[in-house]
Amino acid sequence: MKKRRNGQSSFLRVFYYSHPYLVIFTALIIYNLVLIALAAWLMTYLMKDIEDANGGVLGYSINAYLKNLEYCTVFTMNTGGIYDNAPNSVVILKIILSVVQMITFTGSLVGLATSMLQGVFDRRAHNVGKLKLKNHYVILNWSPAAANLIRELSFLPGRKTVVVLSSESRDEINEQVDNIFLETGTERKNITVFVKQGKPGSRKALKEISIDKAKSIALLVPSDSLGHTTATDVDTFKLLMGIIGITKEASIAIEANDEEKVKAMEDLIKASPDLSDLELTIFSKGSVVGHVLARSAINSSFADLYYSMLTYKNGSFYEIPTKNTVEESMKYYNDCIPVSRYGDGDSSMIYALASSQTKTFKRLVPKEYDRTIPYRKKLFFNSFVLYVIGQNNRSESIVEEAKAYTESKLGKIDCRVYPFDLDINELLQDINTTKRRKKILILSNENVDSDNADVNVFMTLLNLKASHKLPDDVEISAELLDQSNRSSLASLNVTNVIISNQMVALYLVQLMTHPKNTSFYEGLLSSKTDYKSEELDIDVRYAEEILDLKEPLEFNSRGEFISALYKSSNHEYLPIGFVGDKMKKGMGIAETLTNVVGKTIGSAFDIAKKTIGTITDMGAALNMDEIGEVEAQIDINSRIQILSDHLSKKEKIVINKGMIIVLIHYPKN
């Protein structure tokens, strides 16, 4: 019997925990029914000697009790008109019953309803419970790049919904998201963000964010405000395996720390039948940032070029289903530039550069240009010493990029890496004894607390300036972790500033929206040419490096210029835009970029640099040690302009010496 009572008590406790409002409401009903029954008994006792309407005595009977029970029940809803000729004792009972009913029943019900509504509002505010969503973007774990990722997703066309599932504080995440929009001056529109605090590895939490109906998933390495990782790549892979059984349709972009772990995970995915058919993309954030830093140091225009080409804010790359080649596709589009083809059969696509998705519609009548122009390849040889301050996973990719650039025979880069705790005098001595052109790239130290974000960058710059031993012609680039520190570098004459978390976000948003084109974006970021699919690269060249400009070339439209250079270079170079709208005196010539009205997709930036090199035939064998150095000065304050809009519109385009052209480069050709 005792065990039975204990079992019943345990059941009641569990039921109360699971359904607290139902238990409380039921208890209130039972309590008030007991109160009414007791009041009816007292009323029957007090009114047993009162005459009824027929002149008889009510008496103390079951019929009298049932009649009073009815009156008491009605009285709870209407306090007037019951026994108006009743004795004072009954009137007092009515008052007591009215007060008790008001407090215990009406008041309790109002309080219960208020509590239930407050619970609904609290759950809504804190995203407690299941979010019934579909075609939404999911971010698992939180890192400094996540806020930038949400900002970049806001630029996608249409209304977007983003769900963040992280063990980090919901209020802190919301604050970071709000700050990124404020700091960048971006209007927050057409995007709804839900932040759910919980463990990303919990199947219950994953189902509550409707991950099975998500459009795309970003699986980030959890880290603090500076990017200090709080989990390993093995933990990331475990989380991936946990979500595979729930979602089969969404594309998944996976961030990792270690490049070697990336290759190991890719091998595991290929070997697993459950994973090989999914749209999974894994990348090392150190590798991505490292390649961008290196290319921006090699050519200072690349920093803003990457920001412009990878964001959806003013234009990007879009997929167009077609079986045509790049050259054939050019005939059918007036407001976008086809740049790459991938896939086979019915799944084949063309990747096109356009200012928006709406600009990728085919023209009704195909248009073809037959013109060719005098093409030659006389690339300027770029030779300098790159001093990298800071040793981490990004410095490894920088050295790799410098090596690939040298092996491509585009130039010769001597990359020298110094630790974060370097002796500044030793660095300055090395710089001042080196006769070749010099550049400095300062990396930000991640292994510090949040109060010292980017402090090493500022201290290194101040020490270099304070020494008065740094030559004026040394170009300086810097990496920052905290975007709010960017404006502070304006007075320190830094040529390039790369926000590493922002670059990771730009790369992530492209992988989330174009999961089948990893090699395309690898080609854009790196000088390496050993990628598996169609090889391509992005490049910036003077017009005279790829054209035999004995005199200016004139074109009647943008489409004619693009087609002519693509055909004449035997499909090696595809022009997509220009850098700058005005050339100052440089390389012994003064030229003006005229009649170029492209859509601006990048912010103004300074490409002031000193280029040392020789013009050499890249088809010939090079002996770099015997190549002399010729100085050339370029000073441009300009913007990046793409030519994707109105390709067939009649418009005079003049190509002169000194103009800088943004190109898609196909090394295989």
From TrEMBL:
Gene3D superfamilies: NAD(P)-binding Rossmann-like Domain. The lineage of its organism: Bacteria, Bacillati, Mycoplasmatota, Mollicutes, Anaeroplasmatales. PANTHER family: ION CHANNEL POLLUX-RELATED. InterPro entries: CASTOR/POLLUX/SYM8-like. Keywords: Membrane, Transmembrane, Transmembrane helix. It comes from Anaeroplasma bactoclasticum. It comes from the Bacteria. The chain crosses the membrane at residues 21-43. This is Ion channel.
